Amino acid sequence: MSAHYHDENDLKLLKDMRKNAPEDFNAWLALNNIVKRDDGAIPRKYRELIAIAVACTTQCPYCIEAHVKAAKAAGATAEEVTEASLLAAAMRAGAAATHGAMALKFFKEE
Q1: What is the Cα–Cα distance from 41 to 22, expressed in whole angstroms?
Q2: What residue segments make up the domains of the chain, in order of their start?
Q3: What is the reported pLDDT for 74?
């Protein structure tokens, strides 16, 4: 078993969430499942690599684990997974820099 920084037992509560708000839960589930499509213009492997980058940016350990495993199953290499995560880091750093410019703008306002 791999080391986790999250408690997989938390996912059991998704059943309660579905029971508490079935329509909303099913809408979320349908949206979440677009990553798994095999019939889109973007091949499954690339969908999973994009999902990895987004999961790294949103810092969701459950998503990172699920999409890395799915990407591997779809034929992604360790190098591709690494590049996807570093692309996420670059995008996050870029956003920090542009938000820094916004902070400077607010500082200079009268």
Answers
A1: 30
A2: 44-108
A3: 97
Q: How far is CA 22 from CA 9, 10, 28, 63, 79, in A?
A: 20, 18, 10, 21, 39
Contacts of 18 (CB under 8 A, 6+ apart): 25, 26
Question: Model pTM greater than 0.70?
Answer: yes
- CATH architecture of the domain with range 44-108: Up-down Bundle (1.20)
94's tokens: 């870029």
Could you give the angle at the alpha carbon of 56 between the alpha carbons of 72 and 68, nearest 5°?
A: 10
Query: In the block, which residue shows the tokens 């909303």?
Result: 24
Instruction: Give, in order, the Cα–Cα distances in Å from 54 to each of 67, 68, 107.
Output: 10, 12, 31
pLDDT for 2 equals 56
Residue stretches of the chain with pLDDT short of 70: 1-5
